[in-house]
Design a protein that fits this description.
The protein has 9 helices and 16 strands. The protein is of the alpha/beta class and 289 residues long. Helix 1 runs parallel beside helix 9 and helix 3 runs antiparallel to helix 4. The chain is globular.
């Protein structure tokens, strides 16, 4: 068979590449095979870098889009590290304290929270967490508790058990902040993630693509969550995991089975990613890394 053009493959973690933070062996082997064929593979996640499951990077990746697009690195070079502006960050912290939320401020290097939030997270989540994503152990592993959070720099917020619904919080914070309902507890109106409204995974992907002088048509993205909508729409080929939200399924070009049955193994094969790629994708000369 003739070689295919080298591709940039972006993988959401939770519900796509991993099950409850655990990567099936078939997926690890599939990533190795795709990279050995000359394609580049990146994790593309809503998690901050500090919240990556232990050992997930050991298989070898070409880079990372984290915090739903706020943090981007390629070949160990930092391309973007976007955080909440200082004035807005302080308003977010003040509002969450006012409404007695159990919250963590997510930065690439660590998670930050108020004293006692570790006990609240254990009580709310337990060691294994909810049906999807991370439990208390993931948060506690990277957590630093501080009395004064007013000067903490962060890219995203996860909060639980607020005394006000998310609509009230967003009304107080203004148009620069967006909300995604929690997937780890049932009280969606009172738990979720706060993020910068003008940042999403597709922006991080586009930055990687331009850095490597690739075409948009070279991008293949896999995801299952609402925060994957933009990246699936942006990709040359957007692949949704079967059973995803209807909105995610509607924008996909193709579908893959879930990680519990190592669905990426067959999907990579269907897309020709085990075949050798040509046209090596390297950074543009002079491009800031």
């Amino acid at each position: 068979m003739s070689p295919v053009r080298s591709k940039l493959v972006f993988l959401d973690i939770d519900g796509t590449y991993a099950v409850h933070g655990v990567v099936p062996p078939g997926h690890e082997d599939a990533v190795r095979r795709v990279r050995a064929a000359g394609h580049r593979v990146f994790l593309c996640t809503g998690r901050s870098k500090a919240l990556l499951p232990t050992g997930i990077l050991d298989v070898g990746f070409d880079g990372l889009v984290a915090s739903a697009g706020c943090y981007v690195e390629v070949d160990g070079n930092l391309l973007m590290d976007r955080r909440f502006p200082g004035d807005l960050a302080r308003r977010v912290v003040s509002l969450l304290v006012e409404h007695d939320a159990a919250f963590v401020l997510e930065a690439p290097e660590a998670l930050y929270g108020p004293p006692g939030v570790d006990d609240r997270l254990r009580a709310l989540l337990g060691p294994g967490g909810g049906q999807e994503q991370h439990g208390a152990d993931d948060f506690l592993r990277a957590l630093r508790m501080l009395e004064d959070l007013s000067e903490v720099s962060f890219a995203k917020v996860t909060y639980l058990a607020a005394t006000a619904p998310w609509t009230e919080l967003l009304s107080s914070l203004g148009p620069r902040v967006g909300f995604v309902p929690s997937s780890i507890v049932e009280a969606h109106d009172f738990a979720g993630e706060l993020y910068l409204i003008d940042v999403h995974k597709a922006l991080g992907i586009e930055l990687v693509q331009r850095h490597l002088a690739a075409e948009r048509s070279d991008v293949i993205a896999f995801g299952d969550g609402i925060n994957d909508l933009e990246m699936l729409e942006y990709a040359g080929v957007g692949v949704a995991i079967e059973g995803s939200d209807d909105r995610v399924m509607a924008v996909a070009d193709a579908f893959a089975r879930g990680p519990h049955v190592e669905g990426l193994v067959a999907s990579f094969d269907d897309l020709g990613l085990y075949r050798p790629g040509h046209t090596r994708l390297d950074p543009e000369p002079g491009h800031i890394a």
